């Protein structure tokens, strides 16, 4: 098994790919947890119209923008990814709401 190196220390594509695969496993685990919260939201919100919350969406986008700026990652890239993630999360929450309460 290849040790996972910091990106700055990678010298081969094998090392890079091992790092990417490791990060992807972690991201999927975090997405699983995040969508668990979407399931909880679908259970807790009083009605279907409460699922889409534009104030909360703007709040999340502002928070991840600040985090991206702090880390020095491309803020537009993060904004695009999170726009998709939030819209996918809303669609998932609506599906769960409908399946469990609709």
From TrEMBL:
The lineage of its organism: Bacteria, Pseudomonadati, Pseudomonadota, Alphaproteobacteria, Sphingomonadales. This is chorismate mutase. The keyword Isomerase applies. Its EC number is 5.4.99.5. Keywords: Isomerase. PROSITE patterns: CHORISMATE_MUT_2. It holds the Pfam family CM_2. PANTHER family: CHORISMATE MUTASE. It comes from the Bacteria. It comes from Sphingomonas brevis. GO terms for molecular function: chorismate mutase activity. Residues 7-97 form the Chorismate mutase domain. The keyword Isomerase applies.
